[in-house]
Amino acid sequence: MTEAIAPMEALLAAELPDGTGWQYEPKWDGFRCIAVRDGAAVELWSKSGKPLARYFPEVAEMIGAMRARRFVIDGELLIAAGDAVSFDALQLRLHPAASRIAKLSAATPALFMAFDCLAHGARTLAAEPLARRRAALEALLAKESHERLMLSPAAGDRATALGWLERSGGALDGVIAKRLDEPYRPGERAMVKVKLKRSADCVVGGFRYGKGSRQVASLLLGLYDDDGLLHHVGFTSALDATERTAWTAELAPLVGGAGFTGNAPGGPSRWATERSSEWQPLDPRIVIEVEYDQVTSGRFRHGTRLLRRRPDKDPRQCTCDQLAPPLTPDQLEQLVTHRLDR
Question: Rounded to two decimals, what is the model's pTM?
Answer without folding.
Answer: 0.81
